[in-house]
# Entry
Amino acid sequence: MVWEGDAPVILQSGRMVPTLNLQRCLSGSLGAVRYWSSLNMMPTEPCHDALSRLGDDEMGRLLDEAGEERFRLKADCFAAGMYEEPPSQVL
# Structure
C-alpha cells in the first residue's frame, strides 16, 4: 500500500507485488488519514449491557448518530470515486 503511485513494487527476490494507491480510495489528506488510523477504535467497555445502562432514548440516539456517520462516510467515498470514474461505474 502506498499513498500515491501505481507502479508495482519489485522485491529483492525479483517477485513483483501489486500496489494499492490509498489516495484514490480515501478522502482527505494524508495527515487526516494518519490521525484517524492512529486512534484506538476498540471500545473500552463491553457493549452487551449498553441498553440497560443507557436506556432506550440514549441508545437510539447513539445508533442514529452512528448510522448518520456511516452514511456520510459512504457518500464521501462515492463523491471521491466520481472524480476518477463515471458515476454509473461508481454507483
